[in-house]
Amino acid sequence: MYQNIVFKGVGTYHPATKTSNSYYIKHFKSMGIDVSGLIEHLGRNTRCIADAKNENAVTMAYQASLKALLTSNVQPEEIDIIIFGTDSPEKLIPSNALLLHDRLNTVNAHQIFDLNSNCIGMLSAIDVASRLLQSNTRLNKALVVGSFLGSFISSKSDPVCYSNMADAAAAVILERVEEPYKRGFIDTNFKTDPVVKDAFQFPACGFSKLYDNETDMEDKKLRLDPFDTSFICKEWVDLMQVLFERCNISKYNIKQFFFSQFSKPDAETTLDLMSVGLDKYTYIGNKYGYTGLTSPIIAYNEALINKSIDYGDYVVFCTVGAGYNICALLYRL
Amino acid sequence: MYQNIVFKGVGTYHPATKTSNSYYIKHFKSMGIDVSGLIEHLGRNTRCIADAKNENAVTMAYQASLKALLTSNVQPEEIDIIIFGTDSPEKLIPSNALLLHDRLNTVNAHQIFDLNSNCIGMLSAIDVASRLLQSNTRLNKALVVGSFLGSFISSKSDPVCYSNMADAAAAVILERVEEPYKRGFIDTNFKTDPVVKDAFQFPACGFSKLYDNETDMEDKKLRLDPFDTSFICKEWVDLMQVLFERCNISKYNIKQFFFSQFSKPDAETTLDLMSVGLDKYTYIGNKYGYTGLTSPIIAYNEALINKSIDYGDYVVFCTVGAGYNICALLYRL
């Protein structure tokens, strides 16, 4: 028998307010910048934007977690672990995990923390939660939640960030189950190389300058020095190849790939380099914008809804975070 | 043979600038507040305060990590995992772990992330790192680092925070070794109960209000609504008792206890409740101030220097974080 760590259920949350490409084209046109080519290239259409007055990382995570509990048919008191992934938290003290614990009334979730590895954060958190459940048989269920407020941290004068980033939360309930064959969380492969550590910074000035009166407001938000991201395609291919060899599986056995939803062409180039058909991936960055760490999980949820994946299928999550670090995660439904 | 996860070495960093009780007594006297009784009660004498212009969470973590590598006789390229614990980060994007990776040139540390569970953060991170190493035999060594800038996040008009909190970093190198008997990381016990979630908040206004012009500067920093912390003593006793029962060990076999260094009387009351002698704990909160998540590790380092613990000894780390959550961790040298 195998001790499998499986996704018991997934929940996502998208704010009610939708914005379309035309809003951003008009916004930046007034500054003399044409973003139409960029947003079309990356694959945008609509985005969902949080209500800055009433929503934040914790409220969005709460909504996604409620849905994940519902689809899992799990009660809050069954949760043992909460890992809250975010790089746009509401608080640093107390942790967002603790604030979520309070809202959900997860009275038995004693091991809880926030985790930040930027846009690979939900995959990192799923890896950590899976290994905590594997190595500690007193614990049975984990809630992994990611929350991203891209619209809030972006400066309205940054054409790449403001016109592409959006807001969302996603949650997954993981459970340890005993089964006669191996499935669920299989393995991960990570790579970190901080060569573009300065390209993408929030707060750009650093917390150590955040309270200085001399620091410009724009410098207190997210700053992107644009760079060509397409090198990531070859990196992803190498990362997945090592993972597939380790797990003794062929890329042709993967039913669906869930990439970062930042750039549609980067996902498609990666599949081309692997000679894998473009029907093997799910793109939702057109509907929801780029929602950071939540984006591969939202794509997975879409594939569940579309029934393009089913029990027994192998799937791969593959994404990239600021700096950069990359992660590929192999999962069997 | 046992696969033990052991502390290969520890490093600490304290900024050069020292402040004494008289500075804080004078500072608050000018506001009509007498803090002399409070700081004496909690056990303060001197504190080390970072240079706000040139130091931040990452620079301090770098100094502590260099010392930990040196005392461990480990090269940066041997590190596989970096977990950076902090609730006073320098950046949210990229992660502080990635910025530290860049400075240390830990070229093979591919699984890296920031972890925040406030003042229990280093114990949480040691638990996670230990279990990642236990469950993934491709990984051999982890760097767990904590960095706390208490002086920076505190408002200068908050008598409890500003007069007690100080700045420090601590780092531990963990390694998996095969040995004929069980030692190293043994087990943890956590408890979370968000009953005092509003008592201690940073930023007090939340990030969602941090950029509002109407938000008062004081509200953008740490806010403490003082409450009696002494209930934690009984909580710690219960937490440790469960851990000892699980691990089949008597409290009388513990050579040293390393508590949160926030309150000397809380540590002593806890030992009294357990009928354990006051020679069994190490207090350094008089020399270094309260340094958040780093404080139990700095106490451990002091015990190593003082030779009050030795190879084969059992020790317990036991601390509390905002909200609250508590953790006890059993380790055998």
From TrEMBL, chains A, B:
A Pfam family of this chain: ACP_syn_III_C
Domain Beta-ketoacyl-[acyl-carrier-protein] synthase III C-terminal: 245-332
Domain called Beta-ketoacyl-[acyl-carrier-protein] synthase III N-terminal: residue spans: 113-194
Record-linked Gene3D superfamilies: 3.40.47.10
GO molecular function: 3-oxoacyl-[acyl-carrier-protein] synthase activity; beta-ketoacyl-acyl-carrier-protein synthase III activity
EC number: 2.3.1.180
UniProt entry keywords in alphabetical sequence: Acyltransferase, Transferase
Superkingdom field: Bacteria
Enzyme class, broadest EC rank: transferase
BP terms from Gene Ontology: fatty acid biosynthetic process; secondary metabolite biosynthetic process
UniProt-listed InterPro entries: ACP_syn_III_C (IPR013747), ACP_syn_III_N (IPR013751), Thiolase-like (IPR016039)
Matches recorded under PANTHER family: 3-OXOACYL-[ACYL-CARRIER-PROTEIN] SYNTHASE 3, BETA-KETOACYL-[ACYL-CARRIER-PROTEIN] SYNTHASE III
Protein name as catalogued: 3-oxoacyl-[acyl-carrier-protein] synthase III
Organism: Ruminiclostridium cellobioparum subsp. termitidis CT1112
